[in-house]
Amino acid sequence: MEKSKAVSKKKYYFATLNDNVDLRSLPAGYNASKPPLSNSCDRCNKKFEIFDEHKGLMLICSHAYHYRFYGEINKCDYCLEYYKKGVSCNVKSYLKRLGEDTNW
């Protein structure tokens, strides 16, 4: 049986906490190909202004979008891509292990 690979522990520094936080403790958005932007729309990269408070939304994954962009997609493309890759990787691993098991 093959040994499992060591997983690197990525951390993000949060100035408000003055601490490094383990990536596994953060919302899914931090694992996606594009981590959430600070106070900016993740689609157009423009900063949210104070008066824009009601012109956008932040999703549970921590990505944020202006309503006009989120209305076009109705999902977080970055996190969807992350989950699809994870499912595909796990299915391939599972099928590989099924093929190697000869003790049925």
Compose a concise summary of this entry:
By secondary structure, this protein is of the alpha+beta class. The protein contains two helices and four strands. Strands 1-2 form a two-stranded antiparallel ribbon. The protein has a two-stranded antiparallel ribbon with strand order 3-4.
Q: What is the topology?
A:
Layout (H helix, E strand, L loop, with lengths): L10 E4 L4 E4 L33 E3 L5 E3 H7 L3 H24 L4
Antiparallel strand pairs: 1-2, 3-4
Structure commentary:
Helices cover 30% and strands 13% of the residues. The protein has 104 residues and is of the alpha+beta class.
Entry keywords:
about 100 residues, alpha+beta, two-stranded antiparallel ribbon, two-stranded antiparallel sheet
Instruction: Identify the quaternary structure here.
Output: single chain
**Overall pLDDT metric:** 81
Sheet with most strands: strand arrangement: 1-2
Number of helices: 2
Number of domains: 1
Structural class: alpha+beta
The amount of helix comes to 25-40%
Give the overall form.
flat
Distance between the termini: 16 Å
Low-confidence stretches: none
Rg value? 19 Å
- Approximate strand percentage: 5-15%
Q: Secondary-structure element order, as H and E?
A: EEEEHH
Most strands sheet: 2 strands, antiparallel
User: What is the count of β-strands?
Assistant: 4
